[in-house]
Each structure stands twice: as C-alpha cells, then as structure tokens.
Amino acid sequence: MAAVEVEKLTKRFNGFTAVDSLTFRVEEGEIFGLLGPNGAGKSTLIRMLTTLLPPTEGTALVNGYDVFRQQNEVRNCIGVIPQAMTSDLDLSAEENLNIFAKLYGVPRNRRAQVIRELLQAVELEKWANHPVKHLSGGMRRRLEIARGLVHEPKIFFLDEPTTGLDPTSRIAVWEMLVRIKKQRELTILLTTHYMDEADRLCDRIAIVDHGKLVAIDSPMKLKASIPAASFLEVSFSAIPTGWLETLKSLPEVASVTVHDHIFRIASHNGPRTTIELVEAARRAGIEVSSLSVQSTTLDDVFMHYTGRQLRDELQEKTYETSLMPPR
Amino acid sequence: MNRIMAIIQRDLLKFFRSPALMMASLIFPLVQLVVLGYAFGGKIKNLKVGVVNQDGGLETVRLREMFGAIAANARTFTTVGYVDPRKALEDLREGRINAVLEIPPDFSRNVLEQHEPQIALIEDNTDNFVTSALEGVFTGLVAAYNQPRVEPRVPGGVSLRVVELYPYVPYIQYLLAGSVVLSIFVSAMIGGGIIFIDDKARGLHEGYLVTPITKFELIMGFTLSGASKAILAGLVLSTLGALLAGIPNPLALARVARLIVVIVVSSMALISMMFLMMVRISDPLVPRAIFGVLNTLLFFPSGAVYPINAFPPWMKAITVIDPFTYAVHAFKSLFLKNTGFIAISGDLIFLTVFTVIMMTFATLLFRRTL
Fold this sequence. Notes:
The structure holds two protein chains of two kinds. In chain A, 37% of the residues lie in helices and 27% in strands. By secondary structure, chain A is of the alpha/beta class. Chain A folds into two domains: 4-218, 3-Layer(aba) Sandwich (Rossmann fold), CATH 3.40.50; 227-295, 2-Layer Sandwich (Alpha-Beta Plaits). In chain A, β4 (57-62) and β5 form a beta hairpin. In chain A, α3 runs parallel beside α5. By secondary structure, chain B is mainly alpha-helical. Chain B folds into two domains: 43-145, abc type-2 transporter like domain (abc type-2 transporter like fold); 169-365, no CATH class. Chain B is built from 14 helices and four strands. Chain B has helices spanning 2-16, 19-41, 58-72, 85-93, 107-112, 128-145, 171-202, 204-209, 215-245, 253-278, 285-299, 313-321, 323-337, 345-365; strands spanning 47-53, 77-82, 99-103, 120-123. Chain B has a four-stranded mixed β-sheet with strand order 2-1-3-4, sandwiched between helices. The model of chain B has no long low-confidence stretch (mean pLDDT 87). Chains A and B meet through α2 and α3 of A and α1, α7 and α8 of B.
C-alpha cells in the first residue's frame, strides 16, 4: 500500500483553480518533495492531504484512509509541520510538546519519556524549559518537528520546513530530518521552493506549477531528462547586434537565454562550447567579463518543463502581506 | 477531556505569563469603578449665585439669613451681591456665576400684603445637574420661607415621611455591579475575542486542527478557558471592588457563594456571545474595531450607570436582550440588598438560556477546516 495516493485531486476557490487534477503516489519510507514557486498550489495540496481543506474534486488516501471521509483516522497517523510557526511563544519547549502530546492522546505514563526522547532527537534538551520566544528560528523549527512526531506518526508532512532560516540552520534541519526518518521509518512529504533542498533531501520530486503536475521522478532522472548536460553563465564587455543568434549558432548549444545581460547557454558539451564561445568573442572584438560552467540544476529542469526559471518566479511573485507582525 | 484540558491549560499558562494582559483585564474596570463612582457620586457644592436685591426691605433680610445658613451648612451655594442686574446676567452668560436670584423692588410690600410675592431664579440651563441642584435647594428654601412664623400645635396638612429600606447607597456602590460585569466583559473580549483571532491570523489554530481534537472539544476548550479568565476577573473585581466601595460584610460566606454562581453564569454568557461573534472572523482588526462600540452598546443600556426606567423605548429594546442587564441586576441584588437566589432566579435563567443559544449557534458556525 502506498503511503499517499492522490487521484485527480482538485481545489477551486471562487472559480480559481489552485490545484488542478493532480495524480501521484508516495511510497512508504521515501522522502517525496513538491517543488514549485510560491502560488503553485503546494500548500493547498498539503492542506487537503492533512484534512485542513476539503477537496473540490478527486480523492486522496493517506495511509489508506480517505482524507474527506475518514478525517480522524488520517489525523491520528500523520504529523504536520505547517509553514507558519505554530508553537506558543510564551510557553516553554517542553510545555508546547506536552500540550500536543495531550491533544494527540499520548498516554500520561508515556508522555514525559516521549518528550524527553524527542527533545534529545532534535538537540533541544538544554532548552526544554526556555520560552519558545527565546529560541532562534532554527531551534523553533526543530521544536516544531519534535511536536509533529510526539504521537509517533507514520507519515510526516512538512510545508516549507526551512523557509526563513539561515544556511547553517537549514543544513541542521535537513540532517535531522534524514536522521529521524531513518530512526523512525517515516514517510516524509515536503513542499519547498528551494532547489537545493529538494535535490539534497528528496528521493523523488514532483514539480508543480500553476496547480498542475509538470514532472515527477528522482532528482537525478529529472536532470538527465533535459537535453543539455552543462550550463554556461557568461557576461560580456559589450553586446554586438545579433549576438544572441551568434551564440545560438555555436556548436553543441541547445538553447540560449538572456537575463539582466547574463547569457545562460545550455550545452551538450560544456568544454567545447566554452572554447567556441571565447573564440567568437575574440572575433567580435569583445571580452568575456565573467564565465561559469555548471552542471544541470533543478532550476534548469523547471525551465525546461515550464519555460520559466524557478528563481525568477520567486523574485517576481508578490507575497501577501500578513495583517500580523512577523513572529 | 484531556484535549479540552490541553486547550485550557495552554490558554491559562499564556494568560498568567502576560502581566500586561492581566492588568488590562483586572485593573481597567477597577479604575473605572473608582473614577466614575466618585465623579458621579458626589453632592454638588460651592455653586455661585448672584443676588440682585432691588428691594432692600426687612423680608429680604430673612432671605439673606437663609442663604447664609445654606452657605454655612450644606454649602450648595454661596452668594455674590450685584447692584446692576445687567452685570449679573452678563456674568451668568460668561460662566462666572451659576445662577442669578432677582428680588424685585416691591417684594417686601407684596409679602406683607400677601399679594403674590415672587423671586426669580435665572439659571444657566446648559448643565442639567447644576440646575436640578439649584432648583431643589431654592424650592426647599421657598417652602421653608412660606412656613408660618408660629407653628400650630397640631399640624393640619399632609406631611411625607420617608423611610429608607436599606442604608444609604453611595453612587460607587451603585456602580459596582456594572463594573464587575464590565471586568468580565473585558476579559471575554480580550481573551475570547482578540487573542482568539490573533492566534487564528498567526496560523496557531492550524496546529490544533491537524490533531484528532473534535469540533466540540475545541469549542469547549476555547469557551472554558475564556470563561476561566473572565471568572477570575469577576472574582477580583467583586472582592476588591466591594471593599473599595464600602459594601457591608463583603466577605460573608453566603453572599460570596451566591456571587460566585452569578460570576460563573455571567462569564459563560459573555464568553459564549463573544465566541459566536468571532467564530467566522479572521481579520485581527475586527475585534479591536468593535470593542469600543460593543462596550457602549452593552454597558450603558444595562442600567449599570442610570436607571432603565429613564430610557427611551428603542434603548429599552436593547436592554431586554442585553445579557449585561441581567448580570447587572443580579449583582446589584447581591451587593446592595444581599438577596437570595430566588430574587435573581430570573436573571440566572435568562443568562443560562442565553449561553445555550449562543453556544449552539457558535458550534454550528464553527469551521473545523481552514
């Protein structure tokens, strides 16, 4: 039995389709990522799978239970870390875990032990009695992870688990997730707009854009699915007329895009294209200002399947401003 | 039950760790009790009455003696002499004096001839309280002036003997009931309204909704935790307020037991009303915006500061459905008259039925999903 089975799942809000007929499976024990820009429908999908939103159409089974008809059974077997921090700032780490242990029905005679073990697992045992408002962002996120595991769920949903964290904290959260997953034999389904997070953590990734499933496979296979093997990012001292066409005509070049005067060239043979590029610049009487060669990233995969770059989507998207001040 | 207790535990822990919140819930109504109680409760004194005596005869001497007696004892007013009536009226208009008493030139002769003697009291009627006080004093003064010089041995006319059933009730005691209900309401509004919506807007509720907690457990948890804070506010105000206001035997066990029942029932009524109002609200600005309006709409028509009998029909309609009215009446009965449950049974029944109705609709409207 798959941990999660989604069949033509759809969610509409007043005529707007946030999730459009998604179908996929998440196998037991895997870390499955939903990668896409903000507004792609990832959080809406997670909320349907965690019984926070009823679907408009389609079905979803979580651990064999229907998310619409068997909500309580679903809630009992999942742990959820929403995007917003939902721990009480005025309560201590231990108090937060205790409250949720009661909400999940953890027996009284086991609560203290479960909480102690979880605090050790997320390396917060020294901070057990400190109010959450005294913890850093990374520590709060680790506490949230502990909170989601207090009832020993089989399936763990995380909505943008490292958004807003500094690089060191992000790495700490990733390492902890991998460790906890192995210890507890969890299935993890996470949403993210960070390519490196999806690439590093996930066994399989589903790329979601405008509510639709664009591609689904392991990170390695997704990268291998696009024609180009390398990407060159290059800028020049001047840009002669017709330069874009000139670059496109170079040998082994699959495609060329330009953004903010930086040319991004997809190539089947990075070294050969590099040599040809430098030679073409010399002939045109211009200099290469900067040059970097990268192997294929998930951004390139996103670009290939959607025609847009994931990082551009993140920069262009406007965020809803919350009425509440940031916590 | 564990889940309901978890919600209550979380809410109360946060409350007790927020001194500002506790102060707002407990101190504000106490301050209002003291300030309003003494602002409205005093007797009006030291008014200035300009006297224009155009007569100067013997009868005016008697009047002047009466004025002097009032100035020395009740001190409701002191007199300022004027020769020119126009100057007196000018000072009255400009607020330097509160009224002008004009004694016409033929006053003494008219008194002796018993030919409709009159004195005129010209008032600044922009202040009803001052004019009422002056009219009361001068009506009494004129009645005393009209008494025969020699009292008959057996009085022939009808006299009114006033008997007060209870000891004198200063205004601060009259206001105490309303202040207690207000403290419960402020707690309900902050704890049950503002904090509930703030937590919702921050996404805190999402953390609860993904757990197996049922809709009923969530609602009961929120309601009971809000009611707990409101009960605490009510108890503090009842005790401290009764001591401040000088209620006799405020800590008598029977009275305290009855007060606790009324506090609990009133708290449940107000918190359930607040919950119903906020159950579908997500905007944190809404409870803040309506706080003041709600306060005015519920508190003043309840009879807390002024008798309901004086209200126009449209305000009496609010009074009938306002839970404050019944809570204030119950508290007034217990504080001022020390009655038993029978005297307040109607209030308790209304508040209980009100709670049930509010909770029923709140449960129906509450969304278990986002």
